[in-house]
Amino acid sequence: INVVKHKLLAFVISALYAGAAGGLFAHMPPGYIHHNNFTIIEMVTLLMMIVLGGIGHIWGGIIGAIVVTVIYDQTLEFYFYQPLLFGLSMVLIVMFMPRGIGGLIDRYLVTRKFIAIQEEKADAAS
């Protein structure tokens, strides 16, 4: 397998999707992209969705997006403190859940499978 070729292909396909999404976004009303459409809060929010969900986990990403959206909506009244809240929560997530929600789910499933195997061995031994 040619690794460089496949990495380049993955990059090109992701760039194609990003370009198509940007082109579609530009045609939505009002028909142009304003510089205030993407503030630092929106960028950090998107990054938090990915980090909280766990990179490489589809369901973790969906759960992360739902959780971050709910938190974002609940903290709208603290608009002045939102950057501090999101930054602090990002640091805490990276420190205490480095693999995100998807990593917690994986660890739970592996632990559950390990316990089931241990119980089978104990039943077979007795």
Attribute tags:
single chain; 126 residues; mainly alpha; 2 domains; 5 helices; 76% helix; flat
SSE layout:
Layout: H1 3-26, H2 40-53, H3 58-74, H4 82-96, H5 100-125
Q: Could you explain how this protein is built, in words?
A:
The chain is mainly alpha-helical and 126 residues long. The chain has 2 domains: 1-37; 39-125, no CATH class. It has helices at residues 3-26, 40-53, 58-74, 82-96, 100-125. Helix 3 packs across helix 5 (100-125). The longest helix has 26 residues, at 100-125. The chain is flat and about 70 Å long.
Summarize the structure.
76% of the residues lie in helices and 0% in strands. With 126 residues, the protein is an all-alpha fold. The longest helix is centred in the C-terminal third of the chain and has 26 residues.
Q: Mean of residue pLDDT?
A: 84
The portion of residues forming beta strands comes to under 5%
Shape category: flat
> Percentage of helical residues?
over 70%
